[in-house]
Amino acid sequence: MTPTIRIQLSVMMFIQFFIWGAWAVTMGTYLGAIGFSGTQIGQAYSTAAIAAIVSPFFIGMVADRYLPAQITMGILHLLGGVFMFLATTVDSFAPFFVLLLAYTLCYMPTLALVNAVSFNQMENPSQEFPGVRVLGTLGWIIAGLLIGFAEQITGFLGLSWEMTNIEGTNLPLRMAAIGSFVLGFYCFTLPNTPPQAKGEKTTIREIIGLDTLSLMKDRSFAIFIVSSLLICIPLAFYYNFTNPFLNEIGVENAAAKMTMGQMSEFGFMLVMPFFLRALGIKYMLLTGMLFWAARYVLFAFGDADSALVYMLYFGIIFHGICYDFFFVTGQLYVDRVAPKAIRASAQGFIALITYGVGMYIGAWISGIVVDMYAIEGTEPTMHNWTSIWLIPAAMAAVVMVIFFILFQDKVSPEPETVEDVEVNEENDAV
Q1: What is the pLDDT of residues 2-13, one digit of tens each?
Q2: Please, are residues 281 and 333 in contact by the beta-carbon 8 Å criterion?
């Protein structure tokens, strides 16, 4: 890979995840500000899960067979930019849901396409890809910092700015729309990546990884799959309602401070080889679940206006452990137990189960729970966040106990294979 291509791919990754970080973090706060209920906010976030379920079909049946990956990606981002911008112009639930669903159906397939474009240009993906992919995490962080410190940035530039907090406005979503247009046109300048399966027959079974079901005969693998699905239900609480929670209790520059989660994700990725050697697969996964529960307990009892504010910051920082220790380790476990012939299919299956089915269920449940603990007579609506956060904490704890009792660690991966897992990863920025 030449330095020029590295720069091209790095810019692509940066914008790709800048877009996601711009709309996904603060959308719940914006929707609450325009009067959406918790249930409606959860349903809005469920569009990404629906798209995650649908996108493998699009990739397998269309993107891999007819158009070059960079052209397909460019078209999808341009269409997505239109849908996202239109979504910012409506304030009723039904049209917003439809437009957001249309947007996520355009965006989610591009997560696989950016990897396809990258891998096609690399001679040694396991060595070259991490250095490109890390720009995606940086893009997500920069989006959060721009949103969180918008007032300070515009003041530094000498521009007038009447808003003190843009997190409850449609501006972050419009930032994502602009990013989509920029990346859409930029994609047409990327190196050519021909359709990988042109002229080949592809079955639905292969696309969604149903061949992996044969591995469910092993009890530990079945427990892992079920636990992965269940743990994504409390995960949805974090993704969907952390920003509304922090803004409601008075945390300043919440979006910027939430980027500490992505920073810790990057840091813990660097030390994963040590922990893999020391703990092994089972206890790596259990540690991720433990910190999942701990994060929500910290949120439940943290306070923005007292000495307990540190609990909120630690809850955010724990995201790195929660994500890396469970999801990345889980991908490594799948890579080790699946026969070589179905490894790619198995990784697709676990992504479908977690980011698709699990997050979809979690989006609905999280919205219902938030509405259950809305405080009547408050305007804007306030919530009993202590009760809300203890529910996903209990969910994660129950999954952890079941996993501890039933799962048996039968593999001992070598630490250096962590990079190989990162190559297979498609959705590691959240």
Answers
A1: 889 999 999 999
A2: yes
